[in-house]
Write a structure and sequence with these properties.
Rossmann fold; 256 residues; disordered N terminus; alpha/beta; 7-stranded mixed beta sheet; 25% strand
Length: 256
Amino acid sequence: MVWDPQQYLKFSGHRLRPAVDLLVRIPDFGPREIADLGAGAGNVTKLIKERWPEASVTGVEGSAEMVAAGRKAAPDVEWSHEDLGHWRPARQYDLIYSNAALHWLPNHAALFPSVMEKVKPSGMLAVQMPRNFLAPSHVLIGETALGGPWRSKVEHLVTPPPVEGPAYYHDLLAPMSANIDIWETEYLQVLEGENPVKEWTKGTWLTRYLDVLEGDERSAFEAAYGARVAKAYPKNAAGQTLFPFRRLFMVAQRKD
């Protein structure tokens, strides 16, 4: 995927809120080494550094475009341009934080214990992932993919939801954890503008499909999805679009 920082940050206020909600639930235990996995454009990594200014903070991000934006937003953070799927640090961290990133990686049954192994004893793992994949915003992407002349090019992208329920992650992390706090929040996001749910997904999940297509076919796919999603999320009397969005959170402390 080619990430567009400007498209992603169109809704930066809404995207930042769950990241901050996760950050404030982390105990102030004085971490010295912190990794932010999937650091994106650095707007959250900057807040991590501001909370723990004495800590060494590393932003790990697979998109060159996002890393460039991150270095501008958080110049006092060490940036590592590498694919999260191949992240194999030589050391452990007091805190590993990841906001809206790990759902892009497969095989969570192996992934989450592997990430937890990179946390020092008594350290913390803090993760937020979207769990909105059965909402019309995401289901209609798959329907559009399977219902047009582009099907053969994009049908491989139509996959089951990548994030499981809370109990699944509790069972994965419990054997390695002294305590775990897992919860879900559904935010009722009030969006402005023309077809804002399309614009929202264009900054994340829809990008996977558009990257495969070119020219008129790409435009036609976006227009077909846009028509579907605008009908699913009509504007209210005030001209606003209400977009409920569920997210899954977890904060786990590793056993000594």
